[in-house]
Design goal:
Radius of gyration of chain A: 13 Å
Helix content of chain B: 10-25%
Number of helices of chain B: 2
Strand content of chain A: under 5%
Structural class of chain B: alpha+beta
Oligomer: heterodimer
Structural class of chain A: mainly alpha
Number of helices of chain A: 2
Shape of chain A: elongated
Largest sheet of chain B: 10 strands, antiparallel
Chain lengths: 54, 192
């Protein structure tokens, strides 16, 4: 089963892929898209930590 | 679930999400804004009574895209009067060299008078700047013009630009255009 932990790591590594793609070719992904993915990863991570710490 | 399976899940998920985000970024189409029409030194041409008076061989304008160039074409509508020009052409920059513009004819000798021309240009193999803009250049050839790109005070080119309209449309690129796009990413091509 895909848990919050997996979604967090998937989103975080996706942010890494997008950042690398932007380094190679800045027009491929916008900075806004990259920031959205990073924020989404940390939102998921925050809820995962909150849920598992209860 | 063992550690290897977890890593495979995360890698597969990362690949799927990255591809999905890239596919979504290709969806926007429609009208695109553009900057001022200027000469090759960045000085804007004067606008008089609703027409931009262009008095040099080369005239440049930036078109601001909201998407990557791949899978896209630019539909450009130009309303202009070529006056006494021998030839008027337009192109979108495709490489790092500052004059790498494949040209498309807008008007030839004897076709003076106010007119509107629409030209579709494939974008997949074109050069995109870091702010996602593309460079559009007009090439005016006057009677007796030399091969120099800047003729200074001897430049006899004169024409009027009344209106510009730029739209992007979805189009499937050819294999060579796709190869050029991939090469531009790998080689980290930038406008010089």
């Amino acid at each position: 089963m895909i848990t919050g932990k997996y979604i967090f790591w998937i989103l975080l590594s996706t942010a890494g892929v997008l950042a690398a793609a932007r380094w190679f070719h800045p027009a491929t992904f916008s900075l806004r898209t990259l920031l959205l993915v990073v924020v989404a990863a940390f939102v998921v991570g925050f809820f995962y930590v909150n849920r598992t710490s209860q | 679930m063992n550690a290897n399976t977890r890593i495979i899940y995360i890698l597969a998920g990362t690949f799927a999400v990255s591809v999905a985000i890239f596919a979504l970024s290709l969806l926007p189409v429609g009208a695109r804004s553009y900057g001022v029409v200027e000469n090759i030194d960045g000085i804007p041409f004067p606008a008089i009574d609703g027409a931009t008076h262009i008095s040099e061989k080369l005239a440049h304008v930036d078109v601001y895209l909201k998407e990557p160039v791949v899978f896209k074409r630019l539909v450009m509508t130009v309303e202009f009067d070529p006056k006494d020009l021998v030839q008027l052409e337009v192109g979108v920059r495709e490489g790092e060299f500052w004059l790498s513009y494949p040209r498309h004819a807008l008007a030839v000798a004897g076709s003076g008078g106010r007119q509107s021309v629409t030209i579709p240009i494939q974008l997949s193999d074109k050069l995109q700047d870091t702010d996602r803009s593309i460079d559009v250049m007009f090439f005016a050839t006057a009677e007796g013009a030399s091969a120099k790109e800047d003729e200074g005070v001897d430049d006899a080119a004169q024409w009027e630009l009344y209106a510009l309209d730029f739209r992007t449309e979805f189009v499937v690129p050819t294999a060579s255009e796709l190869k050029d796009y991939m090469r531009s990413i790998v080689k980290r091509e930038r406008p010089l």
